[in-house]
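Human
Can I borrow your eye for a moment on a structure tokenisation matter? Give me a protein, with the fold worked out from its sequence. Write it directly below this note and I will take it from there.

Assistant
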Amino acid sequence: LAAAAAWLTLDMRSILTQCGQPVEPKACTVIYAFQDTHGSAIGLVQTGIRLAMFAVPIILGVPILTREIEHRTAMIAWPLAVSRLRWLAWRTFPVIGTAIGALGPMAIGADQMNAAYFPHSDLGFLQHGFRGVSLLTTATLMLVAAIAIGAVVGRLLPGLLVGTALAVALQIGLGTILPYWVESAEMDTQTESIVAGSFPITTGIEFRTPDGRPISDTEVELLVQAIYEEYGPEPDPALLPQEVHYGVAASRYGEVLLRESVVLVVATVLLGAAAAIVVRRRRPE
């Protein structure tokens, strides 16, 4: 997946090197220039990365403790270990390193692939959670959660099922709270919109009269109807109600990413501590 993302990135950027020539490709000026040529492949790679960022932590994390408990080797390993916490550390740190080593190139590849796909845009919140730092923090949280699930459940198949359900809930939950990490504000649609070349989060749309008075959707319909009846099919745009967008601008992505990352790191540490407590108190069976 990382290699595919890298190949697509290099291919798109090789096309962009022709910009400025007498006959330059459409990609030099159009936002969705690569949609017809690279869109399907990019969508496939992005889907694979979405699945991998949850599948890798679940597959690597759940069996760490369940295999010891199911095979009854914990009855031997835990009493012989100097401490259960040291035993757990020796088992988990290599797995965490393996997961980051596998997902890190995917995170970088997805980030660069999206940047090449939209070379004239501020990526902002595009594919948030599935590229760059946000992918790694979410996947690390899921990995530690999978280890904790294995410690609590103690069985491989039930642990995998619970981990899958948790992955779905985590994805939905993070997507739901994403607009609330910072306060929503009025955005300038001339600069903060997909058409303008940025990817913000829109949380609401309101309307105002030309003099700035807020009006409801019903009033908008009545006012627009009256204006068209009075001035014909092409009235002065200054007479029409203004559409006002509220949300989080793409330029604030760094602020949102920092706050979310801090919370996810804290949650990861707490889940790791919970897993350690369970291992320390659990009977080998």
